[in-house]
Please model this.
Amino acid sequence: MTTAGGAGPAATAPPAPGPRTTGGKGARRPPVLRLLARPEVGVFLGAAAVFVFFLIAAPAVRSGGSMATVLYQSSTIGLMALPVALLMIGGEFDLSAGVAVITSALTASMLSYQLTVNVWAGVVVALVLSLAIGAFNGWMTVRTGLPSFLVTLGTFLILQGVNLAVTKLVTDDVATDDISDMDGFGQARKVFASSFGVGGVQVKITVVWWLVFAALATWVLLRTRYGNWVFAVGGDQDSARAVGVPVTFTKITLFMAVGFGAWFVGMHELFSFNTVQSGEGLGQELIYIAASVIGGCLLTGGHGSAIGPVFGAFMFGMVNQGIVYAGWNPDWFKAFLGVMLLGATLVNLWVRRTAARR
Model:
């Protein structure tokens, strides 16, 4: 067959080029799927749903004062959920985080009161002790190869016993003495437990610290070499070590970050209430871990973000206060949180699998 002009046989037109593929799949996934693959997207949608639900079910939530209370409750959880999330991304978790908060507060309070020194001296000593506890947990985990679950469970029991025994020994009571009239208390309170007005609503300073630390943690994870190390040791620490990642340093510093968080929250509790109950903190470590898991962090490590736990902590604060404002029985709070945890975990798993398949 010839062409219309008789120049010769007709050339077969080449097939239209198809999409470039890699391994049988499109090299570039649709933007929606790439967005769904982000660890914080699922919890953001969940937090938005919980927020809208309580706006409808509990009209009192709509006031500025109520939202300030919700944010305050969220911040006290979120300040600890952030370092716990980083530790989980690094492949470990800390069961002693809850009682470590009280250990820090007890140390600062009793040292300041019993030695009659400026409260800042107690604050500094508490910081050193908290970092040392974190370093010990990290060193024991790396040195022995034991699961961090066992190491920090031991630390949890040690701190729980020490908190009660030492407090009774020093103060003859289960609580510390009031330090509100001691030198430096007013300055420390401004840093850790003050409030400021926004549109006629009093907002706790912990909300600001929470958002600042979240921004800092996000920058560290996404823009620094250390952030790459955290993901690497959480994904496969042997492979990470083989390519030069300082696994020991990374894991120990992640545990120390949890110690820093425990110190900061402990100082907030101390300077908010002037005294500390030595038996508090039990069970809080599970709240911090749950907020991180809801925020998209995996117990197996190597996956997560710093923004996800922010939304996870907000969900906890919203539910905690929303139940009260709705006039429901607060005994259902933990049951609601359990359902929310399982639901968020399943949604995150489904979203990741769907994004990976497509």
